[in-house]
Specification:
The chain is mainly α. Among the domains are: 193 residues, Growth Hormone, Chain: A (Up-down Bundle), CATH 1.20.1250; 62 residues; 73 residues, no CATH class. 77% of the residues lie in helices and 0% in strands. The protein is built from 22 helices and no strands. Helix 11 runs parallel beside helix 16. The longest helix is centred in the last third of the chain and has 44 residues. It is globular and about 75 Å long. The chain starts with a helix and ends in a 20-residue tail after the last helix.
Length: 584
C-alpha cells in the first residue's frame, strides 16, 4: 500500500470537516472565479491573439468565450453529481480538480492567433468548465456528509458565498491581470488548481453513508445534455441580430433550438420516470423544501446574473466616462466599484448560515429575496448619473440579501434529501443555479436591446448629425444593431470611435472630433434610452426576487427525508443524522 493510499484510508478525525470545508471552498472559488474572470479581460485577450472582438464576424467568438463555460456548467453538473453518488463524491471531485488544472495550463499556452487562437481558448474553456462542474456538483454533497446537522448551514454558507463572491472577484482579478498580460488571466488559475489537486488527493476521504454503484443512465444523459445544450445555445444566438431585427429570436435556427431543446427535455423527463436508477431523480421534486428551494435559487440566479451584466454596462459605458475615466480603464474600475456587493456576500453568507442552523432556513431564505427586491427598486429609481454613495449602499444591500438567501437555502435543499442522493441533489441544485446564470444573459440582454432599439437609433442619428457627421453616415451608424453598442460599452471601448471609424472622424473638424470621442458625449447621448431599458430590466429582476421569496416562504417545515421520500425513491434510504438544519 502506498503512502497516499494509507493517508486516504486513515480514519477520519474530528478536524476532517474543516479540511473538507477549506478544500471544497477553494475548489468552488477557483471554478466560479474563472467563470467571470474572462468577461472583463476580453479586450486584452482578443488584442493578444490579434482578433477584433467587435468585428461582426467575431461576435460569435466573444459570446462563446463567455457563455461556453456557463453552458457546460449548466448542462453537466447534474450528470457529474450522479456520478459522484455512483463512484464516490470525493473521487469525482478530485478528478475535477485535475482536469481543471490541466485546462488552465493549456489556456495559458495558447499557441495560435486570430480565429484559431480564439477556438483554442473556447475549447479549453469548455474542458475547464467540465472540471469546474465536477467541483461544484460534488462540493456541497461532500460538506453535507462531513458536517453534523447543527453546523451544516454554516459550512454550506461559507462554501456558497465564496462561490458567489468568486463571480465578482473574477471581474476585479480580470481587470488587474489583463493590464499585466492577457495570459496572466489564465496563469493565475494554474498554481491554485495544481496545489488544490495535490491537496484534495492527499486529504479528502469518502465519508458518505448509503449505497454506492449503479448503472449509468445513458439515455437520460444524452437527452438532457442535448436538450439543455440546444436550449442554451439557442438563447446564446438569440442575442445576436438576425436579418433586420435587433435580436435573433426570429431566426429559424434559434426557434428550432428552442423548441427542439424543450422537446428533448420533455423526452428526458419521461425517460427518467421509467428508470429504476435515473440520472435526474425527479422524485426529489416531490419534496416541497427541495422543489421550492431550487425554484427560488433559479429565479435569484437569473436576477443576479442580469444585475452583474447590466451594472458592468452601466458603469463602463456611462457613469465612469461621465466622471472622467478613460474607456480603456473602465473595466478595471467597474470591478472595483462593484466591490460593495461582494462585501455584502461575505458579511451575510456565513452569518446567515450560522443563524439558520439555530433558527431555521425559511426565515432567512425568505427575507433575503425581499431585501434583494427592495435593492432592485432602489436601483431603478436612481438617475443614470447617480451619487456613488447611494449606489454603493444599494449594492451592499443587494449583496447582503443574496447572502442571507444562499446559505440557508442550500442547507435546506441538501438537508431535505436522503444521504444516498446528496450527489445528484447537489448536481440538480447547481444545474438550476448555473442555468439561471446562463439564462440571465439571454433574458436581460434581450430586454435591454429591445429597449434601446425603440429610441437609440433616432437619438444616435440626431446627435451625430448635430456634430457634423454626414446624414447618410449617421443614419447608417444608427441602423446598426444595438447589440454592437452594448458590446462596445461592455468591453470598455469608445462606441462612437468604433462605430464611426478613423475615416469618418478624420474628415470632421478638430473640435467636432474631440467632442464625439470625448468622455461625456456618448454617455450623455444614450443615458435616456439606457435608463428606459434599465427600468424594464430591474423591474423584471425585482419581480423574480419577489416570486423567489414567495417560493421560499411556501417550502414548509422540513421532515426527515426518509419519511418524505419513502415512496419516492427505490430504497427510502435516509440520512443517519437528524435533519435539523433546514427546519423553518
Amino acid at each position: 500500500m502506498t503512502r497516499t493510499q494509507r493517508l486516504r484510508d486513515a480514519p477520519v478525525g474530528p478536524g476532517y470537516k474543516w479540511i473538507a470545508l477549506s478544500n471544497t471552498t477553494l475548489g468552488v472559488l477557483i471554478a466560479t472565479l474563472d467563470s467571470s474572470i474572462v468577461i472583463i479581460s476580453l479586450p486584452a485577450i482578443f488584442r493578444g491573439i490579434g482578433l477584433d472582438p467587435l468585428a461582426p464576424g467575431n461576435i460569435g467568438y466573444l459570446l462563446w468565450m463567455i457563455l461556453g463555460y456557463l453552458l457546460v456548467s449548466a448542462v453537466f453538473v447534474v450528470v457529474l453529481g450522479r456520478l459522484g453518488d455512483m463512484f464516490g463524491r470525493v473521487r469525482i471531485y478530485n478528478l475535477g480538480f485535475l482536469i481543471f488544472a490541466c485546462a488552465s495550463i493549456a489556456l495559458s499556452l495558447d499557441p495560435f492567433r486570430e480565429g484559431a487562437g480564439a477556438l483554442w481558448l473556447i475549447l479549453w474553456r469548455i474542458v475547464q468548465a467540465f472540471g469546474g462542474s465536477m467541483l461544484t456538483a460534488n462540493s456541497a454533497a461532500i460538506l453535507t456528509d462531513a458536517f453534523p446537522a447543527r453546523q451544516r448551514g454554516m459550512a454550506l454558507g461559507v462554501n456558497q458565498i465564496t462561490a458567489l463572491a468568486g463571480q465578482f472577484l473574477g471581474l476585479l482579478a480580470g481587470g488587474l491581470l489583463a493590464v499585466i498580460d492577457w495570459r496572466a488571466v489564465f496563469w493565475v488559475s494554474v498554481p491554485i488548481s495544481v496545489a488544490g489537486t495535490i491537496w484534495s488527493y492527499l486529504s479528502l476521504r469518502e465519508t458518505a453513508s448509503g449505497r454506492r454503484g449503479g448503472r449509468i443512465d445513458w439515455f437520460g444523459n444524452i437527452t438532457f445534455a442535448a436538450g439543455a445544450g440546444a436550449l442554451l445555445a439557442a438563447i446564446t444566438y438569440g442575442i445576436q441580430p438576425y436579418g433586420g431585427g435587433a435580436t435573433g429570436w426570429g431566426n429559424p435556427v434559434v426557434l428550432g433550438g428552442l423548441f427542439g431543446g424543450v422537446f428533448l427535455l420533455v423526452v428526458f423527463c419521461v425517460i427518467e420516470t421509467r428508470l429504476k436508477e435515473p440520472m435526474f431523480r425527479l422524485a426529489l421534486l416531490k419534496v416541497r423544501a427541495f422543489a421550492a428551494g431550487n425554484l427560488a435559487a433559479l429565479l435569484i440566479a437569473i436576477a443576479r446574473g442580469g444585475l452583474q451584466f447590466m451594472l458592468i454596462i452601466w458603469l463602463q459605458g456611462i457613469w465612469l466616462p461621465l466622471h472622467g475615466y478613460e474607456f480603456e480603464d473602465t473595466p478595471l474600475w467597474a470591478g472595483i466599484f462593484m466591490l460593495p456587493m461582494t462585501c455584502g456576500f461575505l458579511i451575510a453568507g456565513p452569518l446567515s448560515g450560522y443563524m439558520s442552523d439555530r433558527f431555521g432556513a425559511r426565515l432567512f431564505s425568505t427575507a433575503g429575496p425581499v431585501v434583494v427586491a427592495c435593492s432592485f427598486v432602489g436601483l431603478l429609481l436612481l438617475p443614470v448619473n447617480f451619487d456613488y454613495g447611494v449606489f454603493a449602499l444599494l449594492l451592499l444591500v443587494n449583496g447582503f440579501g443574496q447572502g442571507m438567501f444562499s446559505a440557508p437555502n442550500t442547507s435546506s435543499i441538501m438537508g431535505s434529501v436522503p444521504a444516498a442522493y446528496r450527489g445528484v441533489a447537489s448536481g440538480m441544485r447547481a444545474t438550476f443555479q448555473n442555468s439561471g446564470t446562463a439564462l440571465s444573459i439571454g433574458v436581460f440582454f434581450s430586454l435591454m436591446v429591445s429597449g434601446l432599439a425603440s429610441s437609440l437609433p433616432s437619438t444616435l442619428s440626431g446627435g451625430l448629425q448635430a456634430h457634423g457627421v454626414p446624414a447618410e453616415t449617421a443614419h447608417h451608424v444608427a441602423s446598426l444593431p444595438p447589440v454592437s453598442t452594448l458590446f462596445a460599452t461592455f468591453l470598455g471601448e469608445n462606441p462612437i470611435q468604433h462605430l464611426l471609424g478613423p475615416g469618418t472622424l478624420s474628415r470632421l473638424a478638430a473640435d467636432q472630433r474631440e467632442a464625439l470621442t470625448g468622455f461625456s458625449y456618448f454617455p450623455q447621448l444614450v443615458s435616456g434610452p439606457f435608463h428606459d431599458g434599465l427600468v424594464i430590466v430591474f423591474s423584471v429582476a425585482a419581480g423574480m426576487a419577489v416570486i423567489s421569496a414567495i417560493a421560499s416562504a411556501l417550502r414548509g417545515r422540513s421532515r426527515r427525508p426518509d419519511a418524505e421520500l419513502a415512496t419516492a425513491t427505490p430504497t427510502g434510504e435516509a440520512d443517519p443524522e437528524p435533519q435539523g438544519a433546514p427546519s423553518s
